[in-house]
């Protein structure tokens, strides 16, 4: 009898890939789902799902296909979004249930604000499930009046972590050999690309993760943690915009711990680093992962505050910049910076690279990329120019507030 296939559920969509297993973290050494620019050999041994399914009254069944050593179960698109993607046994008052409610509400809030600002574009919605449990809602607004492309996705995942991945992620050596580790993960992720070169791109992502090993499995205690962040990627620097954005992030952090903003701001600068260019993707914000060294209720409130801060942090900037006159040179520079965005996502974003290597759903994997980008050979902005100032700030991160 062949051994059972170990599985890991991962909605793959570049920076919209909400979850990705990684073997290390800036803060701790435990199995995690998050964004990490480094690669892990153990990932090639995982079974990967591109999406999820609702366990209640499932419509159809997933088709299993194999790419090299990785199996992929395709999602089932459904005509109407369900009230919940949680399994029936979940307590409505649990952290899982409350986090799902939060990301559903945040998706509605953000999409509503973006549609109102755009005025012309509307989000296309795809809801999907998978037989293994869970589901998701993908929303994309493309080629609107303000937005070139805007994606806002949520996912709820049930899966199983292979024992070799769990062991590889543990910092302390142990003789114990855990079996497959059940996990739950949920999150919201978004990338927003405006048309106007003076209006910045925004990315945000907030997620919650639990492992919950069976009682008879040694060496794999239950764990949980939160992760996420919000960061700004402009093509031109308007200090009032960047200060406003960082001020909103700091306000959200300071409500819970004054150490959060400086700690997570540096983490963000370090994370969104394009190593081969020696520059950051943008002007930062906040980023954190593996966060579980505080009260769970407090961290749920913190993640909620951060998600709710997206609209007040971003919409006022867009209102100021969306109609700013620009010329072909401004647009060409925006396209060059979009090229950097593409480079980071395709080279360093683990969700993107893993999805491409394992034959995932290409529309989901690449949804975070802009419609247009540009590369010029050996392009160098004139020193002292507005373009040079942006590049300098990406090479040398600044304290904006």
UniProtKB/TrEMBL annotation:
- EC number(s) per entry: 1.3.3.3
Q: What is this protein called?
A: coproporphyrinogen oxidase
| One GO cellular component, as annotated | chloroplast stroma
Arranged from A to Z, the UniProt key words for this protein are: Chlorophyll biosynthesis, Chloroplast, Heme biosynthesis, Oxidoreductase, Plastid, Porphyrin biosynthesis, Transit peptide
InterPro entries (alphabetical)? Coprogen_oxidase_aer, Coprogen_oxidase_aer_sf, Coprogen_oxidase_CS
The UniProt family comment states: Belongs to the aerobic coproporphyrinogen-III oxidase family.
Is the keyword Iron-sulfur in the record?
Answer: no
Reaction(s) this enzyme catalyzes, per UniProt: coproporphyrinogen III + O2 + 2 H(+) = protoporphyrinogen IX + 2 CO2 + 2 H2O
Tell me the GO molecular function terms: coproporphyrinogen oxidase activity
Organism field:
Corchorus capsularis (Jute)
SUPFAM superfamilies cross-referenced by the UniProt entry: Coproporphyrinogen III oxidase
Cellular localization per UniProt? Plastid, Chloroplast
PROSITE patterns documented for this protein: COPROGEN_OXIDASE
Q: Does the keyword Metal-binding apply?
A: no
Write one Pfam family the protein is assigned to: Coprogen_oxidas
**Which superkingdom does the taxonomy of this entry point to?**
Eukaryota
**Pathway involvement?**
Porphyrin-containing compound metabolism; protoporphyrin-IX biosynthesis; protoporphyrinogen-IX from coproporphyrinogen-III (O2 route): step 1/1
PANTHER family named in the record = COPROPORPHYRINOGEN III OXIDASE, MITOCHONDRIAL, OXYGEN-DEPENDENT COPROPORPHYRINOGEN-III OXIDASE, MITOCHONDRIAL
Primary location class:
plastid
**Its quaternary structure?**
Homodimer.
Q: Write out the GO biological process terms.
A: chlorophyll biosynthetic process; protoporphyrinogen IX biosynthetic process
């Amino acid at each position: 009898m062949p051994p059972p296939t170990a599985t890991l559920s991962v909605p793959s969509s570049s920076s919209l890939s909400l979850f990705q297993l990684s073997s290390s973290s800036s803060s701790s050494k435990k199995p995690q789902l998050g964004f990490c620019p480094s690669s892990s050999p153990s990932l090639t041994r995982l079974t990967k799902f591109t999406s999820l399914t609702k366990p209640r009254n499932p419509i159809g069944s997933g088709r299993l296909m194999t790419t090299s050593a990785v199996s992929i179960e395709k999602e089932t698109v459904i005509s109407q979004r369900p009230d919940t993607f949680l399994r029936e046994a979940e307590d409505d008052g649990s952290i899982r249930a409350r986090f799902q409610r939060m990301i559903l509400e945040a998706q509605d809030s953000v999409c509503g604000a973006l549609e109102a600002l755009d005025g012309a574009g509307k989000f296309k919605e795809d809801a999907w499930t998978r037989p293994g449990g869970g589901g998701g809602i993908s929303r994309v607004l493309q080629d609107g009046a303000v937005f070139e492309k805007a994606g806002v996705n949520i996912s709820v995942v049930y899966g199983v972590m292979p024992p070799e991945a769990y062991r590889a992620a543990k910092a302390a050596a142990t003789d114990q050999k855990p079996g497959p580790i059940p996990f739950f993960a949920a999150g919201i992720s978004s990338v927003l690309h405006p048309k106007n070169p003076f209006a910045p791109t925004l990315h945000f992502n907030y997620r919650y993760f639990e492992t919950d090993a069976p009682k008879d499995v040694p060496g794999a205690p239950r764990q949980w943690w939160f992760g996420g962040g919000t960061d700004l990627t402009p093509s031109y620097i308007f200090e009032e915009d960047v200060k406003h954005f960082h001020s909103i992030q700091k306000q959200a952090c300071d409500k819970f711990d004054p150490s959060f903003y400086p700690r997570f701001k540096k983490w963000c600068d370090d994370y969104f680093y394009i190593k081969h260019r020696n520059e950051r993707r943008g002007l930062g914000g906040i980023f954190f992962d593996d966060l579980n060294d505080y009260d769970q209720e407090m961290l749920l409130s913190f993640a909620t505050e951060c998600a709710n801060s997206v609209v007040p942090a971003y919409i006022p900037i867009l209102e100021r910049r969306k109609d700013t006159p620009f010329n072909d040179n401004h647009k060409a520079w925006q396209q060059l910076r979009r090229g950097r965005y593409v480079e980071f996502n395709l080279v360093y974003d683990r969700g993107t690279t893993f999805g491409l290597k394992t034959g995932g759903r290409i529309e989901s994997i690449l949804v975070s990329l802009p419609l247009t980008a540009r590369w010029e050979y050996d392009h160098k902005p004139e020193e002292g120019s507005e373009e040079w100032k942006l590049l300098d700030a990406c090479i040398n991160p600044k304290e904006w507030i």
